[in-house]
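Lecture 7 notes: from sequence to structure.

We start with a single chain of 612 residues. Read the sequence below before looking at the structure.
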Amino acid sequence: MEEHISVTSLIIVLVAAFLTPIVLKKFNLTLLPVVVAEIIVGLIIGQSGFNLIEPNEWLDILSTLGFIFLMFLSGLEIDFSIFKSGKRKKLPNGQLEPNRFGISVIIFLLILGLSYVISLGLSFMGLVDNAFFMMLVISTISLGVVVPTLKEADIMKSGIGQIILLVAVIADLVTMILLAVFVSFQEEGGNMWLLLLLFIAGIGIYFLAKFFKSQSFFETLSTGTVQIGTRAVFTLIMVLVGLSESLGAENILGAFLAGVLVSLLSPNKEMVQQLDSFGYGFLIPIFFVMVGVELDVWGLFSDPTVFLLIPLLFLGLLLSKLLPVLVLKKWYDWRTILGSGFLLTSTLSLVVAAAKIGERIGVIDSQMASSLILLAIIACIITPILFKQVFPLLETAEEKKRLKIIGANQITMPLTKEFCEEGYDVYLYHARRNQSGELPGNPDFTVEKLEEYSIEELRKHDVFDADVLVISTNDDELNTTIALEAAEWGIENIITKVESPNKQAMLKEKGINVFSTIFSSRAMMKAMIASPHIADIFATREEGLMEVPLTNKEFHGVKLRDFPFFGDAIIVRIYRGNESIIPHGDTELQLEDRLIVTGNHENIYELEYLLE
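Now the structure, written as tokens:
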């Protein structure tokens, strides 16, 4: 007879994982990352606390799957679009910002080199045995902490925010690969050629997946009960995990590689949200709670050297990040530099992974593994708080959006004035072959005269240094050329006037917003004939439609009927990825939703502030 496995311990772990975010919210402990709180809860119910958990196969399997899925999501978090070099912007101090990718690589190389020097020092003191392994631990940076902190601070798209993000992404990629190489050398029978075979297999799978994704039948299988995309993701994870284990590599490398491949394939936001919900809603909390359960704090502190080791390691973490970011002093002030260094010191997932792998292959003992996990917890609690205290968040967050408009006409001129009144930094560019007429000056916005609408002339006037670019000349071909050039420069919001249906379709495929005066006028006339009161919403300024993005995590999952504030604002439509949703009381809001709102402008602006 097969021995019956009790599910009591699993139920306790699941209940603990369920209650943790509720307790954080109830007591307003928002500065503490949820994953850190889950480890602390594990400490309370585990062998360091009430010892309520008895390890069994159920917990081992689910915890391992949580670990694998965590590494997959770490790879998925990497947005490779940030590696594209866009136009360098002018900073408030008048200087041109540094090349983001170049300076990020330099900072990471300095972090890696300094981490090795610190590791050699700890090895010389007899506190660590393997300097290379400790270098990997010290140089890691947690994307899972950096990304939400940057979003919350509203500096993700700023120059310094992109530099911090790039350093974290490069660290995540390089340290994971170096860890896999290190393990391959340490384990008996490890073979670097087999590790290379895993990456070759990943490249082959990428091109195969890209081919199938482009097939029309694949899209028809992505809805309803089939959900072929989600099935493909889980199949990819397990195939690469199984392949990495078969080749003698760590399973987390296969999972991380699967996440990187999915990220490169540009999945829609809805699928990413579903994967995040499944991972952070079920498997990953079990893993982090179990990390705390298995951590023996009392046994750890029975050795007096730990009281010296953990402070020294934490100091090493701080120095390895704060000293390299000093290269930014040429461009940024001290508060920005120190804040950036503190945020880059946050580390968690890879340290936990390295600790568990290092203990398994015998590079470190269980005491050192526990010390590293405890170090990661301390770093994740302290450094985001220090970042928020030091970094000049208010000054960065209040930077005006730069709206640049090409082409002066009866449509763009009134818009220019309106957006000035709404707090945008507006520039209007026009080129007149007939020099007899000049545009009137306006103290609210900048009017710049161009010799011609050529790409060289636009570059010369820094037109592509914009957050929003509107292209409204009378030449479809010219508008298309400028829009495509702007997309190459990485401008996120490009709106261009194009009447040709073929050009409209091509531009939309590239993520460029297109409007047509002929189509818009015809559609408005039709609306006025069929539904005149509905047309008033578009035709009058007082009752216009506005798009409000939901980026505040506090309202994720909240039903519209339970939403605390609307005032005189009404949601008429919700866009979620490519889906258009007609809202009702039971509709649940989700992060990255785009709410189309009408009503009183003051209420809409308050709603926008609340949701961002």
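Confidence is low (pLDDT under 50) at residues 434-438. Keep this in mind for problem set 3.
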